[in-house]
Write a structure and sequence with these properties.
CATH superfamily of the largest domain: Enolase-like C-terminal domain
Strand order of the largest sheet: 4-5-7-8-9-10-11-12
Bound molecules: D-gluconic acid, magnesium ion
Shape: globular
CATH architecture of the largest domain: Alpha-Beta Barrel
Number of strands: 16
CATH class of the largest domain: Alpha Beta
Largest sheet: 8 strands, parallel, barrel
Number of domains: 2
Length: about 400
């Protein structure tokens, strides 16, 4: 079997998605997600100029060799653009391999380890009362785990909360929007938020929170400690993780479980955090961490240290990523949870898929491959629109802060 063509399809059914489609001489095709939010066209160009020419004529079944060829062959290793491009190829090739086998992808990874995938929802409100209502609404929908983010008194725009009460979408402007930030206000508000949420939702629902890289290690330690009475499932990205040593300090101060890794793209980014047991959940997912092939390396390392997976599942990865991730989650022995920030109907209609959501659980389908396709005609009706993630500045003096 040979790869005869590969094409990149860019569309914007409410937000930008980049999809790689690989075609073979036997008529089988596979697709992979190549979406890098806010920097989409860099991956398009990387694929079109530098990757696709090397794929033509290769045997699509040699997934590992092609992965190594693209990774080692680039010489310039790692990085989000490179690893997202490799991930798209890898996902499309696993799709093709599973179609050749006539099996759902999870069967090729080692088969089913669980009956369904526990997912967590996003509940966001402009204040504590609205956030509590949203948490309860998601509990009603059947979610067993819910992430709570709320507006903060005295701050205009806050991560995870839309200004108009609608679904939150971070890449929302033709130029980067500006958020304001005060760690003092945030730390004052957040323990009370979780006290109210826990009281309302009861002891059984898992609660999660994303600090989105905004705290220093000692501030993160304080927040983790103050949240302990409310038994979080995890506190995510408490501090930027470029310096992995920083997590030792947080660990010294709190038993609140920690989740990190949505912006990581290789095992090297999380190796120390995992080996030193400084985190509890690793957030890397298929699209940004080199595809199924590399995510498996990360999960296997994590399994040695009882670190579990918690794949990033924001809507800035396409339904193709979700399909592939759900096959991965169905197999991976050290599964923790899957983020589910549900795509809109418009987005889902461009990507016919066989995965489904039912009472808080996600289920991959049984059709051969990863079970997601792209309706190219419909995709063509939604042309690319430049969109940026915001930036964040300290409220009192405008210093640029982590967003
Ligand atoms: C999450 C993430 C997202 C990111 C987004 C950036 O936990 O889901 O933090 O909301 O901000 O993926 O593109
Ligand atoms: Mg996050």
């Amino acid at each position: 079997m040979k790869i005869t063509a590969a094409r990149v399809i860019v569309c914007c059914p409410g937000r930008n998605f980049v999809t790689l489609k690989i075609e073979t001489d036997e008529g089988l095709t596979g697709i992979g997600d190549a979406t890098l939010n806010g920097r989409e066209l860099s991956v398009v160009s990387y694929l079109e100029e530098h990757v696709i020419p090397c794929l033509i004529g290769r045997d699509p079944q040699q997934i590992e060799d092609i992965w190594q060829y693209l990774y080692k062959g680039a010489y310039w290793r790692r990085g989000p653009v490179t690893m997202t491009a490799i991930a798209a190829v890898d996902t499309a090739l696993w799709d093709i391999k599973a179609k050749i086998a006539g099996q759902p992808l999870y069967q090729l990874l080692g088969g089913r380890s669980r009956t369904g995938i526990m997912s967590y929802a996003h509940a966001t409100g402009r204040d504590t009362a609205e956030t509590v209502d949203e948490v309860l609404r998601h509990k009603e929908m059947g979610y067993l785990a819910i992430r709570a983010q709320s507006g903060i008194p005295g701050l205009n725009k806050v991560y995870g909360v839309s200004g108009n009460g609608r679904m939150y979408e971070p890449a929302d402007g033709p130029l980067p929007g500006e958020h304001d930030w005060s760690t003092e206000k945030y730390l004052r508000h957040t323990p009370g938020l979780f006290q109210a949420v826990r009281e309302a939702v009861g002891p059984d629902t898992h609660l999660l929170h994303d600090a989105h890289h905004r705290l220093t290690p000692i501030e993160a330690g304080r927040l983790g400690k103050e949240l302990e009475p409310f038994h979080l499932f995890w506190l995510e990205d408490p501090t930027p993780a470029e310096n992995q040593e920083a997590f030792k300090l947080i660990r010294h101060h709190t038993t609140t479980p920690l989740a990190v890794g949505e912006i990581f793209n290789t095992v090297w980014d999380c190796k120390d955090l995992i080996e030193q047991q400084l985190i509890d959940y690793i957030r890397t997912t298929v699209t940004h961490a080199g595809g199924i092939t590399h995510l498996r390396v990360i999960a296997n390392l994590a399994s040695l240290y009882q670190v579990r997976t918690g794949c990033h599942g924001a809507t800035d990865m396409s339904p193709v990523c979700m399909g592939a991730a759900l096959h991965f989650d169905t197999w991976v022995p050290n599964f923790g949870i899957q983020e589910h920030m549900a795509h809109s109907e418009e987005m889902l209609s461009v990507f016919p898929h066989d995965w489904r959501f039912e009472k808080g659980m996600l289920y991959c389908g049984e059709s051969p491959g990863h079970g997601v396709d792209i309706d190219e005609k419909l995709a063509a009706k939604y042309p690319y629109q430049r969109a940026y993630l915001p930036v964040n500045r300290l409220q009192h003096d405008g210093t640029l802060w982590s967003w």
